[in-house]
């Protein structure tokens, strides 16, 4: 049952639900605890349902445009057709499509979804995520709240067993979460004991805990097994403790704490999990180790529909998966990448952030530069036209003059940048 607003909620005496059998391990995800600069928000691409936050009259922007009302923002996340922002004070602001509750707030007033609006929460948010039709937040006390709906091949699944949730509801009570990650239609939660909990659509194996025969709503347990968050289990002799997690459109990646091994599960039809699809198995419903990715010192993974971009601890980028439209950044004549391939155009840059959309990719350097490549049809690359880009291209524009980009996020047909001015101020 969701916590009523204004009601003080007591925390469980012990977290993890292990009944004292498992030693308590404190895991702090570097993806959340890193220092974040407060800045302004720039958007570009398609804005037909308000996802650019620029008002009802702006349907498209081919270059980065300033969202004027947003200041002191420390995190941005582009969903399928909506945008979520986190302020330095822990407030969450949303705008865009609200058909299935993805904004987490009332938008009955005409045009209100086109303007940034605050989501009412019971605490201070420290991380945000967004999928196609859902959003989630992690509070500073380790609680997770979400709203909207997951979808599968049939249609809307709901967010919980109560159906679509149009305002925030608590997702994993009794556990302390240190990081969350959203795929298109699934949510992954990393606890302070290094465990993974998942919920949402499991048709491609992205939940990592349900066999293929039970991974759809027509199975014996129906939606219960999918929408109720449950732990991803491992054999007793393994019991990996995770320190980081990332979710792609239809897959999940998790980094083991002790040796940095990367566990993966979900769709691998174009080798996006880091190893070759042999034609016999294109989906993995249980976690497996991706040896090619484990050999890299991975600090972030982003996944589009059929491709993956990997950032290592030296700021180098690798791509793998499907080549079409230039999404790999390896040139127009490159083949599909069956294993991680260094992106040569950025080998002399130190990258600090990455993002993927369906068929697009982005990188941010330590100098505040933003690069884009891939499908140009929606204007999502910020190049000023709709041509496909086969190698990383520096994003320019008036709004980027004297500003440093510090973060990028890519949605279905739009892109969001977090930027500061050259002195690091948020104006």
Automatic annotation (TrEMBL):
RCC repeats: 39-89, 90-141, 142-193, 194-258, 260-314, 315-367, 368-421
Domain (RCC1-like) ranges: 41-417
Domain of life of the source: Eukaryota
Signal sequence residues: none
InterPro entries: Ran_GTPase-activating (IPR051553), RCC1-like_dom (IPR058923), RCC1/BLIP-II (IPR009091), Reg_chr_condens (IPR000408)
Cellular compartments per GO CC: cytoplasm
Single GO term (MF): guanyl-nucleotide exchange factor activity
Disordered: annotated span: 1-27
Keyword Repeat attached: yes
Keyword ATP-binding attached: no
Any matching Pfam family: WD40_RLD
Biased composition (Basic residues): 1-11
Keywords for the protein's UniProt record, in alphabetical order: Guanine-nucleotide releasing factor, Repeat
PANTHER family with a match to the protein in the record: REGULATOR OF CHROMOSOME CONDENSATION
Descriptive protein name: RCC1-like domain-containing protein
Originating organism: Gryllus longicercus
